C-alpha cells in the first residue's frame, strides 16, 4: 500500500508538471514528439491516427523512429519505472527546422513553455490546498497558551490574540510562527509581534528570556506523551530517563497526552526547582527527579499558537488555500537557504525512497481514523511535494527548468540565442551532477531507514 500510494502521488505530480510543458507547447504550435509518464523502456504507447489511436505494447526505439505516425503525431507513453516523466519537444535538445520546432519559436514563447511546468505544480498545490481548507478549515495564528510571567505576558499579549506579523514576517497560519522560530531561533534581541484583538490592531515588543530545560523532545499531540529524544548531559539523561519512555505525571499532576504535557509546561514554567517525573517503561511505572538547567543559547518568549483548525467561507478557502501554498514554497526556500549556509546537513536530504517511507508512516498513523483522514494526509503530502518540485525546478541548475530559463533570459539580454551545442554541454554536466546527487540521496535514504 505504501508503494501504491507513493506511485499515485508521484504520478499525479509529474503528470501535472509535464502537462504544463505540454499545454504551453501545443498553445505555441510546438510539435511534442512524446509525452510520457515514468522512465526507462516503454510499456504501452499510443499514437494518434486519422481514425483514432493506435496502441502498441513495448514500442521499440526502432518503431519510435520509423513509424510514420510517430513522425507527425505525439506518442503518449507509460514507461517501466514509475518516477519522473517527460515532454519531448521537437528542437528542444537539437537543432530542427520548421515552424513547429521549439528552437525556432520566439524567446518569450519558449520561456512560457519551460516556466509552465513549475507553474502547474503550484496550481496543483493550490487546488489541493483549497480542498483541504474547504473540508477541515485552516489553522489561525491564535495564541493558545501564555506562560505565567513570561516575556510575552509582560509585553501585553493575551490568550486569543491573533498574530498577524512575527519578527517582520507576515503571518496567515499558525504553522508560520513555528516555522519562523525553527529557521530563525530566538536570541536575546527584541522581537516585534503585531496582532489583532477583538478586531483592533496591536503591537508588542518582546525581549526573549533564557530557557530552563530538562533536555528532551516529544510530540505535543493527542497520543501519550512519549519521549522521542533525550539529550546527552542534560537533566533527564542524568536521571536515567530514555527515549521511548512515556511521561504519565509531573510533580503529581497526571499527564495523559502530549498536549497535556505542553499545557503543563506553559502553566508551570520550569525554574531551578527540582521536578518529579513519573514515567512508564515496558509497562512498569517509575519516578525520577531532575533539576532543570539554564541553557545559555536557548531562549523563549512564553507563547504557543493553536494547533486546531477553523472552518471558513468561500473567500476564506481561496485566501487560506493560497496561504497554504505560500507556506510550503517559503518553507522549501528557507530549507534550501539553511542547507547552503550549512545549518542543515546533507544527511537530512530525502529522495524517493525516503518519501515512500514517509508516506508509509503517514498511512499507518492515519488509516485507523478512516478514509477521509488518509485522503487529507495524502493530499497534504501532495501539496508539500508539488510545491517542492516547483521550487526545485526553478533553481538555476543546468538540466532543470530553472537552468534552461537562465539561458533563455540571457538570450533576451543579448538579443541572440546562446550556441545550442554549448548550452547542451552545460545541461549534460548538470544532468550528470544531478544523477550523482540522486545516488547519494538514495544511499542516504537507505541508511536512515535501515
What's the structural domain tally? 4
**Which radius of gyration do the C-alpha atoms yield?**
27 Å
What is the average per-residue confidence, as pLDDT, rounded to a whole number? 87
> Structural class of the secondary elements?
alpha+beta
Poorly predicted tracts of residues: none
Percentage of residues assigned to helices:
40-55%
User: Which sheet architecture does the biggest sheet show?
Assistant: 6 strands, antiparallel
Beta-strand fraction estimate: 15-25%
Q: SSE order in H/E notation?
A: HEEHHEHEHEEHEEEEEHEEHEEEEHHHHH
> Outline, from the CA principal axes?
elongated
Overall number of strands: 17
Number of helices: 13
- Span between termini: 19 Å
Q: What's the quick description here?
A:
The chain is an alpha+beta fold and 450 residues long. Helix content is 45%, strand content 24%.
Amino acid at each position: 500500500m505504501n508503494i501504491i500510494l507513493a506511485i499515485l502521488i508521484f504520478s499525479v505530480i509529474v503528470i501535472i508538471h509535464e502537462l504544463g510543458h505540454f499545454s504551453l507547447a501545443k498553445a505555441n504550435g510546438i510539435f511534442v514528439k512524446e509525452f510520457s509518464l515514468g522512465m526507462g523502456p516503454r510499456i504501452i504507447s499510443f499514437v494518434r491516427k486519422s481514425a483514432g489511436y493506435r496502441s502498441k505494447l513495448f514500442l521499440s526505439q526502432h518503431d519510435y523512429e520509423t513509424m510514420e505516425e510517430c513522425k507527425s503525431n505525439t506518442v503518449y507513453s507509460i514507461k517501466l519505472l514509475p518516477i519522473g516523466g517527460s515532454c519531448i519537444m521537437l528542437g528542444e535538445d537539437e537543432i530542427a527546422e520548421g515552424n513547429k520546432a521549439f528552437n525556432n519559436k520566439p524567446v518569450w514563447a519558449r520561456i512560457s513553455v519551460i516556466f509552465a511546468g513549475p507553474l502547474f505544480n503550484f496550481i496543483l498545490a493550490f487546488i489541493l490546498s483549497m480542498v483541504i481548507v474547504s473540508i477541515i478549515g485552516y489553522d489561525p495564528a491564535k495564541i493558545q497558551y501564555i506562560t505565567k510571567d513570561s516575556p510575552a505576558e509582560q509585553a501585553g499579549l493575551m490568550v486569543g490574540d491573533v498574530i498577524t506579523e512575527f519578527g517582520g514576517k507576515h503571518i496567515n497560519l499558525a504553522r508560520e510562527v513555528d516555522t519562523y522560530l525553527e529557521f530563525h531561533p530566538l536570541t536575546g534581541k527584541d522581537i516585534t509581534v503585531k496582532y489583532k484583538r477583538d478586531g483592533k490592531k496591536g503591537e508588542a515588543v518582546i525581549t526573549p528570556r533564557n530557557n530552563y530545560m530538562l533536555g528532551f523532545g516529544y510530540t505535543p499531540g493527542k497520543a501519550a506523551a512519549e519521549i522521542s529524544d533525550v539529550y546527552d548531559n542534560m537533566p533527564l539523561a542524568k536521571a536515567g530517563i530514555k527515549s521511548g519512555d512515556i511521561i504519565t505525571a509531573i510533580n503529581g499532576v497526571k499527564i495523559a497526552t502530549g498536549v497535556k504535557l505542553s499545557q503543563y509546561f506553559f502553566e508551570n514554567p520550569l525554574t531551578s526547582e527540582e521536578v518529579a517525573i513519573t514515567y512508564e517503561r515496558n509497562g512498569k511505572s517509575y519516578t525520577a527527579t531532575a533539576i532543570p538547567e539554564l541553557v545559555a543559547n536557548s531562549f523563549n518568549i512564553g507563547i504557543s499558537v493553536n494547533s486546531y483548525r477553523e472552518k471558513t467561507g468561500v473567500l476564506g478557502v481561496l485566501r487560506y488555500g493560497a496561504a497554504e501554498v505560500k507556506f510550503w514554497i517559503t518553507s522549501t526556500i528557507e530549507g534550501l537557504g539553511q542547507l547552503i549556509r550549512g545549518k542543515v546537513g546533507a544527511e537530512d536530504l530525502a529522495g524517493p525512497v525516503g518519501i515512500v517511507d514517509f508516506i508509509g508512516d503517514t498511512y499507518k498513523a492515519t488509516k485507523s481514523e478512516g478514509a477521509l483522514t488518509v485522503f487529507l494526509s495524502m493530499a497534504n503530502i501532495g501539496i508539500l511535494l508539488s510545491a517542492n518540485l516547483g521550487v526545485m525546478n526553478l533553481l538555476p541548475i543546468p538540466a532543470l527548468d530553472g537552468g534552461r530559463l537562465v539561458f533563455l533570459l540571457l538570450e533576451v539580454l543579448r538579443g541572440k540565442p546562446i550556441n545550442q551545442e554549448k548550452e547542451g554541454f552545460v545541461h549534460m554536466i548538470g544532468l550528470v551532477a544531478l544523477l550523482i546527487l540522486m545516488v547519494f540521496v538514495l544511499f542516504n535514504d537507505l541508511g536512515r531507514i535501515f
